[in-house]
Amino acid sequence: MRALIVDDEQSIREILKIILSEFDFDIDEAGSFEEGKKKIEENYYDLATFDLKLPDGTGIDLLKLLKDRNPKAEAIMMTAFASSDTAVEAIKIGAYDYISKPFDVNELRLLLRNVKKKLELEHKLSEEKEEKFQDLIGKSPAIKIVKETIEKIAPYDINVLITGESGTGKEVVAKTIHKLSKRKDKPFVAINCASLPADLLESELFGYKKGAFTGATSDKKGLIEEANGGTLFLDEIGEMPMSLQAKLLRFLEERKIRPLGSTKEVEVDVRIISATNRNLEEEIEKGNFREDLYYRLSTIIIKIPPLRERKEDIPLLAEHFLKEFQEKYGKKFEKISPDFLDFLMKYEFKGNIRELRNLLEKAVILSDGEELKSPVKKTSDINSVYIDNPNDEFYIKAFPEEGIDLKKVLGNIEKALLEKGLELAGGTKTKAAEILGLSFREFRYRYSKYNSKEEEKEIVVDEN
Questions:
Q1: Enclosing domain of residue 204
Q2: pLDDT, tens digit, for every residue of 306-332?
Q3: Which of 96, 129, 162 is at the close of a domain?
Q4: Residues 328, 445: one domain?
Q5: Is 192 found in the same domain as 281?
Q6: Is residue 238 domain-resident?
Q7: CA of 157: how far to CAs of 71, 113, 153, 182, 229, in Å?
Q8: Most C-beta atoms within 10 A of its C-beta, which of 326, 409, 418, 423?
Q9: Checking DSSP bridges between strand 207-208 and strand 220-221, what pairing results, if any?
Q10: What is the DSSP string of 207-249?
């Protein structure tokens, strides 16, 4: 834990440093208001002691700054000019206590012992809370609001609509709600409503009986029934055909389903969480989405902020993905290079977290050494030519005026990835193909386009 001492008397600061060190605090000190203000703006403190009257300001104003920076921080006010008015004001703002100079050392020790116990309890509760949200990474104000909302609504069996751009982590939010609900030990079943045509989507959701249609050779439970007792996550709900929306609405009203080809209804207990990157209110006006279904699904709406609105979370997300891909590809980096991290902070991720994840995976595959570096020679090259979008396709971020040689660019990308894959596999083609998601034949064909027979002979071959 970290503490800050702000007092214009050097002797007082020395005494406080000795006493605070007994409680294992890392200690910073300041002799003026401006110096203390700078320390608070640049660092994160759990505890502070403020002299009420400083040559260039007041401890009350520093207390306000501290509480703005960290509302859970504790502060002890000190002064030789004690008054009931200033004491009351300090306590109202959030000071832990108020003592007069000269102070009794043993009294201060007792006070600090109580403060330390309170801080330790707060830290324990904070760690337990973070454990709940271990998959929902971030400490930005925007993501904190999302976490607080999830914590409030998760225990209640109400329908939730999650909105946000593609790649913002809507399914992660849905899984977190399920994990914190009373249904956590029951199934979490997800389906993307945009991934199937209307007739197949209906049979997937509601199930069917043997003989219901050509190819129905046996009974099949629908995903709604599979999720019985648990949570059904309907991703991209805005893509659901109107004909199927009516059937879903009926289920939400009656909590019963009738599989295709069946004459009997099945009662199902399931919580519905849906998600969309569309503005459903606009879709209602266009006639593409039922208004009554919208109100059934959106008892609570959680809006996920795009990554550009929570950039302070990028370093945390990058570290998380770095650990994931280091383990996956058997590599070890001590840190992300400052240049690459600077690029990540400045880059506007249209594909949000999914795009950041793709970029980090590419960087891990292509980087060597102690630092994780950009997946291209210059980070500016990413802006000027290409980068992956959330659908794993390429889009133009900014096109050079002089144009590009498309075949050459794509060829260079393919060649670089093939060679890096082979390097990571220790020269073994079979392993390289696996790393790159190719069959051995595909890898051999693609690799042969860029390497002569003589070069290929130097590569270790293991086709088993």
A1: 141-303
A2: 999 999 899 999 999 999 999 888 888
A3: 129
A4: yes
A5: yes
A6: yes
A7: 32, 43, 8, 9, 11
A8: 418
A9: antiparallel
A10: EE-TTSSTT--S-EE-HHHHTTTSEEEEETGGGS-HHHHHHHH
**What are 343's two structure tokens?**
């690029």
pLDDT tens across 339-349, in order?
888 888 888 88
CB atoms inside a 10 Å sphere around CB 14: 12
Helices (H) and strands (E) in the chain, counts: 20, 20
Q: What is the DSSP track for 370-415?
A: SEE--SSSSHHHHHHT-EE-TTS-EE-SS--TT---HHHHHHHHHH
Instruction: Identify the pLDDT of residue 458.
Output: 36
Please tell me whether residues 267 and 195 are part of one structural domain: yes
Distances (CA, A) of 329 to 338, 354, 363, 425: 22, 19, 11, 10
Bridge partner list, 273: 160, 233
Gap between the Cα atoms of 47 and 116, Å rounded: 9
Q: Are residues 387 and 256 in the same domain?
A: no
Q: Which of 155-159, 431-435, 439-443 has the highest mean pLDDT?
A: 155-159
Q: Confirm whether 134 is domain-assigned.
A: no
61 and 93, same structural domain? Answer: yes
Mean pLDDT rounded to a whole number for the chain: 84
Share of the chain above pLDDT 90, in %: 40
Rounded alpha-carbon distances, angstroms, from residue 319 to 3, 142, 361 = 27, 19, 12
SS3 label, residue 368? coil
- The answer on pLDDT for 376 being more than 70 is no
The CATH number for 328's domain is: 1.10.8.60
Residues 336 and 246 in one domain: no
- Phi (first) and psi of residue 351, to 5 degrees: -90, 5
- Using CA atoms, how far apart are residues 444 and 441, in angstroms rounded to an integer? 5
Number of domains in the chain: 3
- What SS3 class is residue 123? helix
φ, ψ of residue 438 to 5 degrees: the values are: -115, 160
Bridge partners, 77 (sequence order): 50, 98
CA 221/CA 243 separation, integer angstroms: 21
242-256 as b/e: b if 16+ CB within 10 A: eebbebbbebeeeee
Do the domain assignments include residue 462?
A: no
Q: Do 86 and 111 fall into the same domain?
A: yes
Both tokens of 327, joined, read 């383990």
More confident residue, 374 or 53: 53
Each residue's pLDDT tens digit, 217-229:
788 889 999 999 9
